[in-house]
Amino acid sequence: MPDSKINSMLMKLPDETGKGDVMAATSVLQQRANEIRNNSINWQSYLQSQMIGDDDYRFITEFLSSDGSKRDSLLQDQRSQCAKTFLSLLEHISKDQTVQYILTIIDDMLQEDMNRVEIIREYAKKKRENVWSPFLNLLNRPDGFIQNMTSRIIAKLACWSRDPMEGSDLTFYLTWLKDQLQTPGNEYIQTTARCLQMMLRDEKYRLVFAGMEGVSVLANILSGRINFQIQYQLSFCLWVMTFSPQLVEQMNKHKIIPILGDILNDSVKDKVTRIILAVFRNMIEKPEDAAMVKENCVAMVQAKVLKQLSILQQHKFDDEDIMADIEFLTEKLLASIQDLSSFDEYSTEVKSGRLEWSPVHKSERFWRENAPRLTEKNYELLKMLVHLLETSRDTLVLAVASYDIGEFVRHYPRGKSIIEQLGGKQMVMQLLAHEDPNVRYEALLAVQKLMVHNWYVKINRGTTD
């Protein structure tokens, strides 16, 4: 499918931010918005205190008393006045309660008709003003509702307007969304995720987001303890990102497959299952690099996806897309196993960061035949093993990585010097004091192999120093 058609399809997806959406209605923002809509603002007092002008007073009172076709006519006749009034109110009124109300009715106005974003865009263009500045400034307000309702409006302007968000404005907004996702205890995280769902449907925006380590942020949050709704929303973000094949490689770097595999295995919600299967399908279908496709398939097998697909096949899903994705993934993963070499299996396991005592580790033949291959791509796999020794808190991973370091040294002539250069010897030495006995044992064996000179020569030629 051509890129233009993909983007068109994605931009037409429901953004799930409407008042009619069941999940949106249960979000903290929507609950508060429902309360705020019932507030009564004394516009007369703002007029009398000269905080707003006569024309703004007339428009806002007429706007609020109209609905349906009458409001459509008003907005058609007074497009410029509409934008002027709303922007003027936001600029001159500082009371949180009133600003909350103004933002809510602006958001409602846009939600009723997405084409109304052009009212604000056209006005800013006519005045030669930055359409984003009034809203981006409100993201710095301390009130959480004001921040997040503003964020909704920005997302709609950015996604529905003819003129895209660009440059420093786009960077500022996406950085704000990224920071909000990572804010502990953010009660509006559902709204933050919804705005990101909207933004990432546009390729320009998702490439910028990916460029600011966005995939890493999504991976970190998804690997933590979050509810199923956030799992769904952030998986949706990953799904739309897979429509840009160049971003799939980033997902591999941040171990998206094993993270989503864990969620899939524990999922009890069809919507979460459906979106993760869609992510996996795209990670096989979209990349043009055959090696990457194969690597992704193997990673899914190691993440126990094939086993979960077998379980899912026993379920009765009303959604035909789920069944189609299950069949597609099962076929591709089974095919990938048929021509899977032991080194492919080992390489994918190391890259996943989830080492376990799979057969290849203890296979003498594997190390004899494949030890030299660990030096390929500038010692890529060896660097990953050393990194795991340095950063992992999983005792199984530490034990297996220590063992693998020792086996590499044992079977590769220059193994000892290479591991020393990469910092592996120091890491293994530190593990001699680890609290877990299995880690200490494997570290001790690895150190012994590192300490013996010309191990390779002694083992394979029967000679000694």
From TrEMBL:
Cellular component per GO, a single term: lysosomal membrane
Coiled-coil intervals, chain numbering: none
InterPro entries found in the cross-reference section: ARM-like (IPR011989), ARM-type_fold (IPR016024), ATPase_V1-cplx_hsu (IPR004908), ATPase_V1-cplx_hsu_C (IPR011987), ATPase_V1-cplx_hsu_C_sf (IPR038497)
Keywords: Hydrogen ion transport, Ion transport, Transport
Gene Ontology MF term list: proton-transporting ATPase activity, rotational mechanism
SUPFAM superfamilies: ARM repeat (SSF48371)
Domain ATPase V1 complex subunit H C-terminal positions: 340-455
Pfam families: V-ATPase_H_C, V-ATPase_H_N
Quaternary assembly: V-ATPase is a heteromultimeric enzyme made up of two complexes: the ATP-hydrolytic V1 complex and the proton translocation V0 complex.
Family listed: Belongs to the V-ATPase H subunit family.
UniProt function note: Subunit of the V1 complex of vacuolar(H+)-ATPase (V-ATPase), a multisubunit enzyme composed of a peripheral complex (V1) that hydrolyzes ATP and a membrane integral complex (V0) that translocates protons. V-ATPase is responsible for acidifying and maintaining the pH of intracellular compartments and in some cell types, is targeted to the plasma membrane, where it is responsible for acidifying the extracellular environment. Subunit H is essential for V-ATPase activity, but not for the assembly of the complex.
UniProt protein name: V-type proton ATPase subunit H
Gene: EOG090X044C
